[in-house]
Amino acid sequence: MVEAEVEDKRITLKEAVKLIPDGAHVGWGGFGYQRPPMAFAHELVRQRKRDLTVYTQGSEIDIDILAGAYVVKRFELAYFGIEGIGLAPNIQRRLAEGAIEIEDYTNLAMAMRFLGGALGVPFMPVKSMLATDLVRTCTFREKKCYVMKCPFTGEPVCLVPSIRPDFAIIHVQRVDPEGNAQIDGVKGIDAELARAAKKTIIMAEEIVDYEETRRHPEATVIPNLYVDHVVECPWGSYPMQVHGYYDFDLEHIRMYYQMCRTEEGWERYRDEYILGVEDHMEFLKKIGLERLLKLRARRPLGY
Amino acid sequence: MARSGHAKPGEYTPLELMAVCASRVIRDGEVVFVGTGLPMIAALLAKRTHAPRAKILYEAGFIDSGAIDLALSIADTRLGYRAAAMLSLIEALGCALQGGRVDVGFVGAAQIDEYGNINTTWIGPLVEEPVEGAPEGFPSMRLRFDLERVRAGERLIRLPGSGGGNDIISSAKRIVVVMRHDKRKFVKKLTYMTSPGHLNGPGARKKAGLLGGGPELVITNMCLMDFDEQTKRIRLKSVHPGFTVDDILDNVSFDLIVPEHVPETEPPTYEELKILREIDKEGLYLGRR
Lengths: 303, 289
Prior knowledge:
By secondary structure, chain A is an alpha/beta fold. Chain A has 2 domains: 13-107 and 164-276, Glutaconate Coenzyme A-transferase; 122-161, no CATH class. Chain A contains 12 helices and 16 strands. In chain A, the strands form 3 sheets. In chain A, strands 1, 2, 4, 7, 12, 13, 14, 15 and 16 form a 9-stranded mixed beta sheet that branches. In chain A, strand 5 and strand 6 form a beta hairpin. The longest helix of chain A is centred in the middle third of the chain and has 13 residues, at 107-119. Chain B is α/β, with parallel strands linked by helices. Chain B folds into 2 domains: 14-121 and 159-279, Glutaconate Coenzyme A-transferase; 125-158, no CATH class. In chain B, 22% of the residues lie in helices and 19% in strands. Chain B has helices spanning 14-25, 38-48, 89-98, 147-151, 165-171, 204-208, 245-249, 270-279; strands at 31-33, 55-58, 62-63, 85-86, 104-107, 111-112, 118-119, 122-123, 126-130, 141-145, 157-158, 174-178, 215-219, 223-227, 234-239. The longest helix of chain B has 12 residues, at 14-25.
């Protein structure tokens, strides 16, 4: 018997970022400190991408970097801050310059918008947002949401438009070359986002053998048919965390926050940690093996 | 063994008292939706004192968290320790919360008005203009920032936004607001209404289609406040040891309802303080003493 040839979707991080044209609509994975595609954000800055629209639940220094470097023009999201540390620093200056716009939703509303996109329906109802400025006002999306009476029960509901972004960028623990992705710990909205996007790029801490995922298919959260490209990217969420792999680097996050409170500080951070390195591997070398190893997750804690 | 009885002023910090007050709201067996910060500490304290069977949920998808270390992020792996399940946002915010299974939710506020409506999104010179020809049901106003005023030195501040805050206030059965007391935070008019309190009075939430009962308690570093049944406006409930009613009145920008008799807030017990300091050994949220 001849084994069927296994599709190999692997490309490099640089190649993956090259696929994103200026002005693209991008769904941004991860949630809070958990599994943000940090390395992808850095490479978007290095390749000087512009005018993206980013859809995300809420992210932290990853999207603040994209704001600082003028990669993103518009955000549709629920949260923009650095949890436990303070307000996102770069976005404050970009908003004051009029360089960036934000359309606000809630976390449930954004999650349902991704689910709607995944299901192939044009909108989803939520019982959030009602009677607030979230439904009364908009910034750039005039048809941001629609409040109506449910045709079945008569109760007020808020309809939110589904999202079908051009690309989904999601960082996971493991993926095989064919694109079967496994996520440990909380999934956030990454399962829905992967299914909502027109093209899904999976970054992973580890590329595992095709046989490995086939042996544990119950662990696959995003199966191959939703995945277009696979990128091996160890420490791809540093300085944030990846469940079971490594903890966040609080010292680095605090340094980012302190530096980026001024434009000059942000430029120094950008020049040193993003533009000043050739690629993700050079960035990791700059951070240093000793520092990275200290963050490695302990079992059974996972952090 | 911890000493029995209540601690004296000076033996605890305002943040510790706030955490204790928040923990006392949680009843045994309840499903509790918290964020990080003081509410997380309060929920852990409740579980280790009067509410061991309380189930703590975090919006990233941690269900019945057994965390022993404090988390910085609501998606922090720490919250997954000995959890019943680690699922998704749609599980936590959709099925558990919007599904009507959450008894008490905790939220913060940058601004709050006299009906308990909350702003966690914008501070600064916002201006609105009508959306021309917007059909009924769609947003009628467009938000703009007056960048001239910003250039002239007025501050435009992007706060975090709703996150899951609006979802929690919309759908949890009871809401507790935990915030720092400041005249600029207790305002007559919000810059932006992110989350619905009692809107403009009795019956308004139900009419708007909101599921939960809305805010029932506001915990600050100076006092506790609840809501008047008749008007749904904020009412002083108790003042923390060391503060007077006048201190509170000096630090709100609206007409606060003050009952004839305002008791002093029950201070923490030595037992509560002992456990609290074990929970936040490093002073991550309670600060270093």
